[in-house]
Amino acid sequence: MPLALAIVLSVLAFVGHAAIWVGLVNRWHSTGYPRKVIKSVTLVFYAGLLVPLLLAAWYVLSEPWPAPEGVEWKLNGVTAYLAFCAAYGLVHIPAWALSRWRSLRHPEVVELRRRHVVDIAEELGTSPARGLRTAIFSRVPANQLWQLHVSEFSVAIPRLSRQLEGLSICHWSDLHLSGRIDRGYFREVVRLTNEQQVDLIALTGDICDVASHIDWLPELLGPATAALGKYFVLGNHDLRTKDVRRLRAAMGEAGFTDLGGRWEAMDSRRILIAGDERPWFKADPLERPWPIETADPVLKILLSHTPDQIGWARSQGFDLMLAGHTHGGQIRFPLLGPVLCPSWHGTRYAGGFFHQPPTLMHVSRGTASLMPLRLNCPPEITKLVLHRATG
């Protein structure tokens, strides 16, 4: 076999192998199974990823190569697997490149108006890191843990009524109150949000990881203001508190409306807002019937912790879906982008805007983080200003 062809096939096999096992990890983490089950099976997937690579490295570095005498390729299980991986890599690379290209472009219905970066540590005059682990990781070069992006986007909604022209929504997600980040960080999030003077605040899950910090919520999030209300759904990390009922009550004390598996209508402004917490909480927001449609369009907004509910949102005719969970991939490699992303769709919906008519989805990179490392993937709070689509 020519050397050039052998190198190409080896690269394709390596890419295919990595894509298969990383893809399994990403999709497995999108399920609603208990955390212990998720973690245990993930170790098996990581072993499937790493062990063949280590064996291949041992084979290449061995001299002489331990191959059967006079035989380059032997048709056996290993060769068949490598051939499958090479074929998978050949298909995966262009599909990934197309998805990556799309993720770098905002849909035509979305326009960035302004963005500024706030160094929270600089604003506070001290690092909000708590605990040795966070303190160490926060000092890693290029870590954007405290570089909060505050962005405003103009969003065109085809069915938006004239009464709702200019409606503004601030999207938070993945606060992860765990004690690893000091309360000062979240006070800055609230202050910066209040400066935006929005109509709605939407928080899409993973609010609190530790039960002892549930009591922080009324004090920290209560001062946030929005003319038409503040709404939330829970995510998988909220289950770690083992006291979801108290968590929901604390969010109520902070002035947030619980949309877990339910919907609310704002009749005066023709808005319907619903919350989907599946697969971790089983309630379907359509358990109650939808309000009767009228001649005037009703803006339908869905809050979902995971972007994996995009198919369901489209089937129900939601105009706007807000989600989180993925943290943008947390680490985005140059050119390659995110690799690990807990979604059934892999990295396709890692972060940003996605137009799947009739639904426009915004996936937040997260407003804070449990893992204290962010590379090319800063935290964000996002203001969406809705306008009627023209043409």
Explain this structure to me?
- The protein is an alpha/beta fold.
- It has two domains: about 5-100, no CATH class; about 110-390, Purple Acid Phosphatase, chain A, domain 2 (4-Layer Sandwich).
- It has nine helices and 15 strands.
- The chain has helices at about 5-30, 35-60, 75-105, 120-125, 130-140, 185-195, 215-220, 245-255, 310-315; strands at about 110-120, 145-155, 170, 200-205, 230-235, 255-260, 265, 270-275, 300-305, 320-325, 330-335, 335-340, 350-355, 360-365, 380-390.
- A seven-stranded mixed beta sheet has the order 1-2-15-3-4-5-6. The chain has a six-stranded mixed beta sheet with strand order 7-8-9-10-14-13.
- The radius of gyration is 23 Å and the shape is globular.
- About 35% of the residues are buried.
- The model is unreliable at about 70-75 (pLDDT under 50).
Write the layout of secondary structure elements.
Blueprint: H1 3-28, H2 35-61, H3 77-103, E1 110-119, H4 120-124, H5 132-138, E2 147-157, E3 168-172, H6 183-196, E4 200-204, H7 216-221, E5 230-233, H8 244-253, E6 256-258, E7 263-266, E8 271-276, E9 299-304, H9 310-315, E10 320-323, E11 332-333, E12 337-338, E13 352-356, E14 359-363, E15 380-388
Parallel strand pairs: 2-15, 3-4, 4-5, 5-6, 8-9, 9-10, 10-14
Antiparallel strand pairs: 1-2, 3-15, 7-8, 11-12, 13-14
Helix pairs in contact: 1-2, 1-3
